[in-house]
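Chapter summary example.
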Amino acid sequence: MAPRVATEADLESLTNTLTLAFEHDPLWRWAFPEPGTLEPFWRMFIGSALRYRQVWVVDSYAAAASWIPPGGSELTEEGEEQVEPLLRSLIGDRAPLVMTLLERFEEAHPRDRPHYYLSLLGTHPDRRGEGLGMALLADNLARIDEEGAHAYLESSNPANDARYEGVGFERVGEFLTPDGAHTVTTMWREARV
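The structure predicted for these 193 residues follows.
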């Protein structure tokens, strides 16, 4: 099925798919070890991204991708102010560690050239192995290529790095969780013209 742009009406189903997609992700499992704590966090980020009409969904929420367009921000100003209180309510004493991790995401993010930022990409666990996530990514990248734009992402799971390289992303850096246990790979894709 062809990807479509998600709307506010899709927020709950998108949140469900992406929460389940990241349930066993090494980085996000480290950040949110207790069941049910990642979902409200993702809901805030997805809800904020929907304002750009760059959140894509395919096949009844089998896979979803959330992009932030060039010059955009992942969260609204109001959302930025809610991050720390939300983390404290969800993960308590772990909140400072996760805030430090989020700061590392922010510090690693390139600022020198406009680009699309792949904030989230995931496939519902019931549909894994069908190639839907990568097909959605390929469709999104074709649209980005039509604009002659660059793209950037962070890979939170080393198992996915080669997949991203397969569609033209190159590793440009990395950073660690505050305890040094997990590595996030930063990846850049040059504009195709």
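To summarize the output: Residues 4-189 form a domain with the Aminopeptidase fold (CATH 3.40.630.30).
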